[in-house]
TrEMBL record:
Membrane topology: Multi-pass membrane protein
Official protein name in the record: V-type ATP synthase subunit I
Entries under PANTHER family matching the protein: V-TYPE PROTON ATPASE SUBUNIT A, VACUOLAR PROTON ATPASES
Organism: Desulforhabdus amnigena
CC per GO annotation: proton-transporting V-type ATPase, V0 domain; vacuolar proton-transporting V-type ATPase complex
Family indicated by similarity: Belongs to the V-ATPase 116 kDa subunit family.
Biological processes annotated in GO: vacuolar acidification
Length: 663
């Protein structure tokens, strides 16, 4: 928390016979950010390992086969823990043999089940079509006509007149047999020589043909009876085959899930080798790992290789490439469970650099505080909490957003008690602090004070980052210590005037002198920095030209930063604005509810409108408030200290999962 996880760079040299076991161990540890050997000096020397593309493709095909079997057998997908490392070169034969056994035992049953299901669907569809026709209709009597063709099907009732008009120039006859949902069941006759004209006319009239069943002879009534008997036989057969499928599910389900995990692991091992190097009979692996995991990883690798492994550990500060900025150290966030979901929102703004302050904890706390101030309501906060809990329990992919929703709901509920409002009703509970609509000036003062505090926090974090990153020149600039002191002097006197309504003359004199001194330092911060640290331009000419340019740049930067200081602070008034709009929306909802209840003359309509209004406010204003809160975080807070430009940490399984074909 407050800083990213401490990482160390490791280089592993492992004999070829242990590479699969070593890769499996790295996969189990997960928190390893691999570095491609071909991007290092060893890669430039040609020490890059090769991956067997044919073997990768074989595992891809096996994975598809396993997925198909799991889907057909309706086995729920579950993650299964592997007890041993997977060696792809051996696993491929085991997997093929086991899948061959399953397919030989179950393929005929599963194939018959699919065929019977298809036949059942066709017969039931045919049965539905036949029930539209008269029972005494005999298709055999209509067949084998020498001069006449016919068609039977459904036609929109409105299309009959259009069809008659289209066929007015040729001989034709229609027999209506009934209607179904504004469609007529018709039997159409025409001469064979004119049948192409018939087909075009029928298509234009949106005619839907009912295909005559060839395999079931007799009248329609006899056909229906025979098909119903056949359906019963097919359903009995399907039930028997389904029972056999259930037995296959119980027999092979767990093994298929285990095989699926082993294939995934083998595929990961093969994909990981694209990152590795190879010298003679040894593989080279390099990457970043949390310092706390190094000892455990070293012990495990020595155990599985019988000590035939060499592991080199280097701190980032000892690497020349890191010191010179050539290599970036990846950022692995290190936050508690209730804070870690906000890492996604931090990452949307950027990834901090390795020594930079990790701002997620500040983001989380201030986000929840501002959200609660703008969306304070006991009832609606409770609804948000329940929605978040539902997401947390039911939708694993969105678990982080479920946690954020629950925490936002708790914050809104707490401020609801402070504001004394439950679903917009202000008389049910007392306000422990204030009612926003009745204390507008005070609310504005509170939000401005909060804005000053958050901007000040951003300036403090900026100073910490400047010291950590050794950006000492910026300490004298408007964005550094001088600018921070200038802001605090002016903001302090402004807040005193805002809260007490007066400022002493001596304080104004101090403000003027302090402001003049600090502005002078900020304008001359570059030459002052060179003077203090004895850093000069190489020539007198460049020094004179550089001073004028630097002076102009500093003046522009100064006024830009001063304007942003004011804009950033004033921007926090939107917290008060949205807290007031929250109350105003409730007032509008209750006004509409009163009008509807007065018109309808019932109390039920009043509460229905109130309920619908609350739903709309939760969905609409909840989204708008969230967006505004994130905006304040990004533009007013993060912009004060967040450098960004870091490289996100990619765990072992995610890194290699992005290479080649996904499983």
């Amino acid at each position: 928390m407050f800083k990213s996880e401490k990482l160390v760079r490791i280089t592993i040299q492992v004999p070829e016979q242990f590479i699969s076991a070593a890769t499996g161990t790295l996969a189990r540890f997960k928190l390893l950010h691999l570095i491609r050997i071909d991007e290092t000096h060893l890669g430039h020397l040609g020490y890059v390992a090769e991956t067997d593309a044919g073997l990768v493709n074989e595992f891809d095909e096996l994975f598809k086969t396993v997925e198909d079997l799991l889907r057909v057998l309706q086995v729920p997908l579950e993650t299964v823990a592997l007890e041993e490392a997977v060696i792809p070169e051996k696993e491929i034969f085991r997997a093929k043999e086991y899948l061959g056994t399953i397919k030989s035992e179950s393929e005929s049953v599963l194939g018959d089940l699919v065929a019977v299901g298809k036949r059942l669907r066709e017969d039931k569809a045919l049965l539905e079509r036949l029930k539209l026709l008269p029972g005494d209709l005999d298709f055999s009597r209509l067949s084998n006509r020498h001069y006449v063709s016919w068609a039977i099907g459904l036609l929109p009732v409105r299309g009959l007149e259009k069809l008659e008009e289209s066929l007015s120039q040729v001989h034709h006859a229609f027999i209506e047999m009934g209607t179904l949902q504004e469609r007529a069941v018709i039997l159409a006759f025409g001469l064979k020589k004119d049948w192409q004209i018939f087909e075009r006319a029928l298509k234009g009239a949106l005619f839907e043909p009912i295909e005559a069943p060839v395999r079931v002879p007799g009248t329609v009534a006899e056909m229906i009876s025979n098909i119903e008997s056949g359906i019963r036989d097919l359903e009995a057969k399907e039930h028997s085959l389904a029972e056999q499928k259930v037995s296959f599910q119980r027999k092979f389900g767990a093994e298929l899930l285990m095989l699926r995990e082993r294939i995934i692991s083998a595929r990961q091992v093969l994909s990981a080798r694209r990152f590795f190097g190879k010298i003679d009979k040894s593989y080279l692996i390099t990457g970043w790992i949390p310092n706390r995991l190094f000892s455990d990883l070293e012990k495990e690798l020595k155990r599985i290789t019988d000590g035939q492994v060499i592991i080199e550990r280097v701190d980032p500060e000892d690497l020349r490439e890191v010191r010179e900025g050539i290599v970036k150290i990846p950022i692995l966030f290190n936050n508690p469970m209730l804070i870690s979901p906000f890492e996604k929102l931090t990452s949307l703004y950027g990834t901090p650099r390795y020594r930079e302050v990790e701002p997620t904890v500040f983001f989380a706390l201030t986000f929840l505080l501002m959200f609660g101030m703008m969306f304070g309501d006991v009832g609606q906060g409770g609804v948000l909490f329940l929605l978040g809990y539902l997401v947390f329990r039911r939708f694993y992919r969105y678990i982080d957003y479920g946690i954020i929703l629950m925490e936002a709901g708790v914050s809104a509920t707490l401020f609801g008690f402070l504001y004394g409002t439950v679903f917009g009703l202000e008389g049910l509970i007392p306000a422990l602090w204030m009612r926003p609509a009745e204390n507008i000036p005070y609310l504005i003062k509170v939000t401005l004070s909060f804005g000053v505090a958050l901007v000040s926090l951003g300036l403090i974090l900026n100073l910490v980052n400047a010291l950590r990153l050794k950006e000492y020149e910026n300490l004298l600039s408007a964005s550094g210590l001088a600018g921070a002191l200038f802001y605090w002097v002016f903001a302090g006197l402004f807040m005193k005037y805002l809260l007490l309504g007066r400022v002493a003359p001596g304080e104004l004199n101090f403000l003027g002198w302090a402001g003049a001194v600090l502005m002078t330092i900020m304008i001359l911060h570059r030459p002052l920095y060179r003077l203090i640290f004895r850093k000069e331009h190489p020539s007198r000419l460049s020094r004179q030209a550089g001073f004028g340019t630097e002076l102009l740049e500093s003046i522009v930067e100064l006024f830009d930063d001063l304007i942003r200081f004011v804009a950033n602070t004033v921007s926090f008034i939107r917290i008060a604005a949205f807290a007031l709009s929250h109350a105003a929306l409730f007032a509008a909802v209750f006004s509409i509810a009163d009008a509807v209840a007065h018109e309808k003359g019932t109390g039920i309509s009043y509460w229905l409108v109130v309920m619908m209004g609350n739903v709309i406010i939760i969905l609409l204003e909840g989204l708008v408030v969230s967006i505004q809160t994130v905006r304040l975080e990004y533009y007013e807070f993060f912009s004060k200290f967040f450098r960004g430009g870091g490289e996100p940490f990619k765990p072992f399984d995610q890194e290699i999962g992005s290479q080649g074909k996904p499983l």
